[in-house]
TrEMBL record:
It comes from the Bacteria. Keywords: Glycosyltransferase, Transferase. Belongs to the glycosyltransferase 2 family. Residues 6-171 form the Glycosyltransferase 2-like domain. Transmembrane segments: none annotated. SUPFAM superfamilies: Nucleotide-diphospho-sugar transferases. This is Polyprenol monophosphomannose synthase. The keyword Glycosyltransferase applies.
């Protein structure tokens, strides 16, 4: 049994899923994985099912009826994890933008240091992003600066999606009241944890743009992040949830 669960949300990741799973399971530290698949038409879930025979007890699958947003997929995964005995719960992408070799860094920060949340950060030591166009770097970096300005959140990479949570953080945050589904979901989770007084530590990582498959970035996701931040701040003035 492992004390750590890596949640990987998927939609049409057939080109990446087997390779990323094998990379996670090859780590010296034993990690379990929960794939949350949003009814991918390319057969991603079927590939995971086939691999479950090889990784019995380590690889789990949660299938949802439709594509309903990254945030909703993670909330479903968090609730599943809380029903189990995992002490550390991770967010990680399927496309190798997050290096599985860095999982242990995030784990150690929470398991052996005093972090409640460890964030794999692109901006804590300069800008450590590979193969992104300048426009996207400026958008992402600018968004994090904007979040700090509006909310006071002391995190340099607030939109990061490579994260380790201690179980107590997910138990404390009211997951049913998490509102956003895209980039703003990542901001909202960190902001709620910050308001609850949890310690958030940023671990420098190198972020690489995906090589296979298609990005899920859209204009609506960016818009949600921009206007959602103001909504989060205003709501926090009147509630602690």
């Amino acid at each position: 049994m492992s004390d750590a669960l890596v949640i990987i949300p998927t939609y049409n990741e057939i080109e990446n899923i087997e390779t990323i799973l094998r990379a996670v399971f090859s780590q010296e530290k034993l990690f379990h994985v929960l794939v949350v698949d949003d009814n991918s038409p390319d057969g991603t879930a079927d590939k995971v099912k086939a691999l479950q025979n090889e990784f019995s007890g380590q690889l789990h699958l949660l299938q949802r009826d439709k594509k309903n947003g990254l945030g909703a997929a993670y909330i479903a995964g968090f609730n599943w994890a809380l029903e189990q005995s995992y002490d550390f719960v991770f967010e990680m992408d399927a496309d190798f933008s997050h290096n599985p070799d860095d999982l242990i860094k995030l784990y150690n920060a929470c398991a052996f240091d005093d972090a409640d949340i460890a964030v794999g950060s692109r901006y804590v030591k300069g800008i450590t992003v590979v193969n992104w166009p300048l426009s996207r770097i400026l958008l992402s970096y600018g968004a994090s600066r904007y979040v700090r300005l509006i909310t006071g959140l002391k995190v340099k990479d607030s939109t990061a999606g490579f994260i380790c949570y201690k179980r107590k953080v997910l138990n404390t945050i009211n997951l049913n009241k998490v509102k956003f589904v895209g980039y703003a979901f990542q901001i909202e989770m960190k902001f709620k944890a910050y308001k609850k007084g949890f310690k958030i530590v940023e671990i420098p990582v190198i972020f690489k743009d995906r090589i296979k498959g298609k990005s899920k970035m859209s204009g609506s996701i960016i818009s949600e992040a921009i206007f959602g931040v103001i909504s989060l701040k205003l709501k926090s003035l009147f509630t602690k949830s």
